[in-house]
Design a protein that fits this description.
This protein has helices spanning 44-54, 60-67, 71-85, 136-146, 161-165, 180-192, 207-222, 226-230, and strands at 13-19, 22-27, 33-35, 93-105, 112-120, 125-132, 150-156, 172-174. The protein is built from 8 helices and 8 strands; from the N terminus they run E-E-E-H-H-H-E-E-E-H-E-H-E-H-H-H. The two termini are 30 Å apart. It has a 5-stranded mixed beta sheet with strand order 6-5-4-7-8, with helices on both faces. It has a 3-stranded antiparallel beta sheet with strand order 1-2-3, with no helix packed on it. With 234 residues, it is of the alpha/beta class.
Length: 234
Amino acid sequence: MNPSCPKCGSPKTVKNGFRCNRQRYKCKQCGHQFTRTTPRGRPLEDKLLAVILYMHGLSLNAIAKLFGVSAPAVLKWVRKFAQETYDKPKPGSAIVMELDEMWNFIKKKSNKLWIWKAYCCDTGQLVDWECGDRDGKTFRRLMARLSRWKVDIYCADHRDVYPKEMPQGCHLRQSKSETVAIERNNGRQRHWFARFRRKSIVVSKTVEMVDLTMALFARFHVNGSMSELISLLC
């Protein structure tokens, strides 16, 4: 059966010789000549499955081997999915907001990267994060966005940066016993993603991918559920 015309959609097409050893067709309706085009790239189901495997601890290289593609191709799938599917929770009210900083690195362990996180104890949501150094400048970027929230109490550990950089009028409570929920969240993050594990040969090469991986973790492992993602395959 001959393909329909890609220009006018008419099914009335006939064979019309070859071009570069490929069958050429001509539309009897509009006269357009064309060759049959084969869809490029992997199907959407494969790309979604790759994202699911990534979110269950497989590295980009491991996923690439399973699908018979390059690691940059898998990286592109994961990046595109994360960019298109995640929005941070809209600012609201929170009685208790826990703050913490989590260690990671870019390319080598001496090139440290700190992920500052904000966890709402009322809703159990990871509401925001900021990647950078373990300093006041990075913390201020996070707090600039958290200022849109109505928070009664901020809880953090005993690092000096918290009372020093906390905006006036914010109530801060510093104690390791007050950050149990976000510490547990850190553990879940290291469990689900190879790039965040302490003893791992999987390394992050860009801050962008750390940030996008945080987005996937927040969207499907904390604020939502993996069943939402898996349902896209059905």
